[in-house]
Amino acid sequence: MSVSPATTSSDIDAIIAQIDECGYCVVPGAIPDSEAARARQILMELVEAEATGEARQAKTQRVGEIAVKHQIFRDLLCNPLD
Predict the structure, then answer these.
(1) Which of 73, 46, 49, 51 is nearest to 61 (CA)?
(2) Which three-class secondary structure state does DSSP give residue 52?
(3) Which end of the chain, N or C, is more open, meaning fewer C-beta atoms within 10 Å of its C-beta?
(4) What secondary structure letter does DSSP report for 30?
């Protein structure tokens, strides 16, 4: 997947500003939809497998050390976006 040549420094500044404000930013087209769907499916499987009764009751769940739990997350971390 490649970054659109239309990406400007103001686009990058807007992404950084949103990360600073919200802690995340959705960047459309950064990865293929099919890869995002697969990562989401694997994440939900991990959430279910690691959920405790306490986490379910509190309606909160964390999946720690995600990169060591499945190759897809390591691939996403190393995605060059070129």
Answers:
(1) 51
(2) coil
(3) C
(4) S
Nearest to 60 by CA among 47, 46, 69, 70: 47
Backbone angles phi, psi at 37, to 5 degrees: -65, -40
The full length of the chain comes to: 82
Which residue has tokens 């497998």? 49
Choose among 33, 59, 36: nearest CA to 47.
Answer: 59
Query: Taking the model in full, what pTM does it have?
Result: 0.69
Tens digits of residue pLDDT in 39-79: 999 999 999 898 888 888 888 888 889 999 999 999 999 98
Closest CA to 28 of 48, 4, 46: 4
